[in-house]
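User: Predict the structure for this protein chain, please.
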Amino acid sequence: MIAFAEDVSGISVSFEFFPPKPEAEDGFWRTIAKLETVAPRFVSVTYGAGGTTRERTLATAARIAQRTGLKPAAHLTCVGASRAEVDATVRDFAAAGVRHIVALRGDPPGGLGNRFTPHPEGYRNAADLVRGIRALGDFEISVSAYPERHPESVSIEEDLAFMADKAEHGATRAISQFFFHNPFFLRLRDRIAARGIGIELVPGILPITSFTRVSEFAAKCGAHIPPALARRFEGLDDDPETRNLVAAMVAAEQVDALRREGVTHFHFYTLNRAELVYAICRVLGLGHLSRAA
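Assistant: Here is the predicted structure, written as structure tokens:
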């Protein structure tokens, strides 16, 4: 049974969006307006593979910074770009009022499963990118974390070594890949603490808007889907009303269980849709805060 505490002090959320295509602009800004009412700590804007959405990422993050009360965080990768090109992008973000960057190595061309080869004049990996960003100014820097091991890593220990390197170079927050089995996240949190890595670990929560689509995402990044979870969504891809009710319940249960383990910040992968995430935030008790203020 879900029984959220009435006192939500100390609980916070953040959201991830991707830059909208021109035909989806109106719907995107309606989503932004709705989710702004729950007062997120920040909202992040993704960066397409190989920098393919660079201009749209910059334009979207800049508009959020200039026309809303939200704090944008721009994703940035080092795939297929020289240091000079990446540094120029960082300066463009700063000029647009974006002072928070989510620094990622990025997937190799062709996606995960292909070998990543750094640009001959580029940053070698995420830790190297963090160091480069830190040298360019006083940015808040977030990075990624993988509760179930990065698909290209040999082990969790290798992941932890990379995490320590990123923290040492200036990253202060690690946002996790989505997961559906909380013990994976909690074990990663314990391992980070045991190694003395000074970084905030934030769980990435993915509400299930389409079980088929989420299954495809999970297969690409190595995220485990418990059989019991799969059974709850059987036959619901063509029944959106019931699926959304089940999805909201599943995500709320996951958040509640993490809260009871002391987690206070939740990062939601919105897929540019407001309904499910907004409903979960209201269950969490956050929907009224900005209006009361």
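Confidence is low (pLDDT under 50) at residues 1-7, 289-293.
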